[in-house]
Amino acid sequence: MKIIALPFAGGNKYSFRKLEKHVPPSIQWITLELPGRGSRFKESRLEDISLMIEDLLRQIKPHIEESPYMIYGHSMGTLLGYELTKALMQLSYKLPECLFFTGRGAPNKVTFTKKSTLPKDVFWKEVEEMGGLPKELLEYEDLLDLNYPILKGDFKAIEDYVFTPMTSLFPMPLYVCMGEEEIGEGPGKTSIDCIKAWNEKTDAPQKIQWMHGDHFFILKNPKEIVDRIVNAFHEATGVIANF
Predict the structure, then answer these.
(1) Helices marked H in 67-167
(2) CA nearest neighbour of 84 among 159, 154, 170
């Protein structure tokens, strides 16, 4: 059994290390990584969601042919998970047993103000206010300089994303979890309507939940969120994981 994970904007294959420590031995956690970051730092960055999906399709194919799997995504990773699953359906690839998304409302409801074109100092101020990066990273100027072009490019991809309606609903269960502090109205918040709109994306069971914390609640509560992800996998497959 495999959890295929897709990181947040600016993230890489190391972004979920806090979570991976709590995954039971019977499940393999695999974080996919886009070019221009982490171990793929020397590759050209992608600033278009459709090109990112093409890259992720090439990565995911060898991992899913022989094993039951689920897709987990946080923030930008949630958008990528949604579009990746659509692509898997269109190509008749083996589908995930379930989807688990955190930190983002449904793609047809989310609106973004342009941040990728802001001056560098204003950009980081906006990112901090919206909770768009773990606070630990915002404390190190060298890391900010290194991550600036990566995050800026990811934001551009999100801002330029054009939603297209699904030709058919997902056939697998869909789980959504949000941080309590990121739910609401106004800048940097996700409305209840935007979260509930996820229910329109599948004709299988859906579950919307929340946990204490801000946009990066997953890093502050790694064991709890992994327990929820694994339990979702268990519900979808009927296979009991050994913790």
Answers:
(1) 76-90, 120-130, 135-138, 141-160
(2) 170
In angstroms, the CA 8 to CA 3 distance is: 16
pTM listed for this prediction: 0.92
Q: Domains in the chain: how many in total?
A: 1
Domain assignment present for residue 241? The answer is: no
Residue 165 lies in a domain: yes
Give the pairing type, strands 69-74 and 2-6: parallel
Q: Which residues of the chain have pLDDT under 70?
A: 111-112, 130-138, 239-243
The domain of 209 spans: 2-236
Pairwise CA distance, residues 137 & 230, whole Å:
28
Residue 211 in contact with residue 224, Cβ under 8 Å?
yes
Nearest to 101 by CA among 132, 131, 80, 127: 80
